[in-house]
Amino acid sequence: MAAEKGLGLARVAAAAGVTVATVSNTINRPHLVAQSTRERILAVMTELDFVPNRAAATLRKGSARVIGLVVPEIVNPFYAAVTESVAVEAGEQGYALALCVSHDDPAVERRHFEMLAEHRAAGAIVVPLLATAERLTQLRMVGTHLVLIDRVENSHDSCAVVVDDVAGGRLAADHLLGRPDTRALTIVNGALTIPQCADRLAGTLQAVDTHSLVQYETESMSIEDGVAVGRMIAESGSPRDVFCTNDQLAFGVIRGLHEGGLDVPRDARVVGYGDLALATEGDVQITSVAQPKAEMGRAAVGHIISEIADGESHRHTTTVFVPELIVRSSAPAA
Amino acid sequence: MAAEKGLGLARVAAAAGVTVATVSNTINRPHLVAQSTRERILAVMTELDFVPNRAAATLRKGSARVIGLVVPEIVNPFYAAVTESVAVEAGEQGYALALCVSHDDPAVERRHFEMLAEHRAAGAIVVPLLATAERLTQLRMVGTHLVLIDRVENSHDSCAVVVDDVAGGRLAADHLLGRPDTRALTIVNGALTIPQCADRLAGTLQAVDTHSLVQYETESMSIEDGVAVGRMIAESGSPRDVFCTNDQLAFGVIRGLHEGGLDVPRDARVVGYGDLALATEGDVQITSVAQPKAEMGRAAVGHIISEIADGESHRHTTTVFVPELIVRSSAPAA
DNA sequence: ATGAAAGCGCTAACAT
DNA sequence: ATGTTAGCGCTTTCAT
What is the pTM of this model? Predict the structure, then answer.
């Protein structure tokens, strides 16, 4: 595997007594080559430690078997899971994965897109924190194939993989409202300018119906924020059936409630969102709305690959995943 | 940034009234080009939306500005942190990062190395779970530049970035033994066949000196394992100064001790290892030995780049990071 | 300071 | 089934 310089199809061809075309065919379209010839060539290739040069193929074909993945960060269990799944799936499909961490900095993001373009990447999967219009326009410049993993506005000019957060919110709320004597809900949310937060709230509103809803909005959706809100809930008359729009909040809220003297699930029920590792690390296992992170990554790679295969006839599609409620002790079944 | 086909140096050159050589120089060695010419060429490049083709450059130069990163998984805060830092650093140095997830499967790993070789990657950073000899031999086949992030045996034929786990173990033990009346320690470890575990124990042994040490060995170093051991410690006469060789264990041990009626840090002190997010997510903030994950990633990229720069004269070096103790409430200062 | 020209290794259309 | 050949777009040496 030494990638020896000067060792190309030509030398393999010479050693095998054929021409480069036949060697190229053994690699890319084996069916066009006679079995015996093929075997001889393969033998020579191993013999010489031949490693095909993808740069040459890319130059010739105009496109590399490379998929770019642009994420705001990896140190975040959700992105880590998506990244891992994209990496695995890309690898299995014979694509290299070019990982780009943007830290949500437009300048960095732009540099990454330029790099992907220079490499003639076959496509890019982007997990934007905020899929603003300007941003997307920029993204589209990369070239042909672009898949977004996120909630995308109606005007999507790309394929996308999204989670139905409205359904997720509804799922959580319905679960909490499932007990006959539950008349009201508390929701602990992040800023409503974040589409996911708005959607989860919308789903909740669908479910509350005639019931009432007390809303808390936190700044950073962190464990700390959750603790603070949990204490407030314990001290106030807020409903003790609490839907937190992420697991960090749920984790914190449970602690805050506890500090306020309330036991979960005896005195209060809590549902989280995301089904992160965190959900099962605390003293009480958290019921949570699970997003199919691995499937999302796989679907994204699938979109790119079929977009490539489709060619001209491609029509953009959006894969919508419906989240699933994982019931644990923080909010047991009714 | 449209990466339009057929648009290369040639067309830019024509439009600017120069030859390809001058355009190439404007990109790669601007100082060789007259200011006025350079500006004109730059203008034409933006005008035409020219995106240089790296595949061509790679083909010509024989090596790509690509660094491979091979990790067993990303869904693991330690690898996630290292990966993120490698990604950022590589990006800043103008390298693309080819991320490979091996799931510790030798076959998959091998495929990844082949891919990196085919792409003529400038180097690879490998975070092997087990740096067995066979494995390393295989790795070395990738080509020229290889950096390991891990504890490496003496016989290292590559650059490496390691953490001094003996020092780390000693750090933890010294801290626990810092209180005048502490005569003995408990260590909760993983399998001693794992070098890191063995080293952390070795460091502990350096510190215990005449004190005595009670050892627990767990199967998977998980939170669950920790809980079980924590209960055992509470019920037994094991020393209540406990060093856990990772944060998961520490997290679990604290819970187990608690279930056994012991308060941390009042009745028992616990030190973890790794300084993961987990360390600060529990009810009690965990004192932990921190590995400089980001610096490690940065150092690894640095090794590759200087190895490239050094050329022939390169001598392999190992960067050893000494971990640092982050004191929190689970084991306050004496 | 700029130009001319020879490939790097591969693919694919065309010919045999 | 296999051979011939023309580039893909770039870097770099050697001239000018």
Answer: 0.93
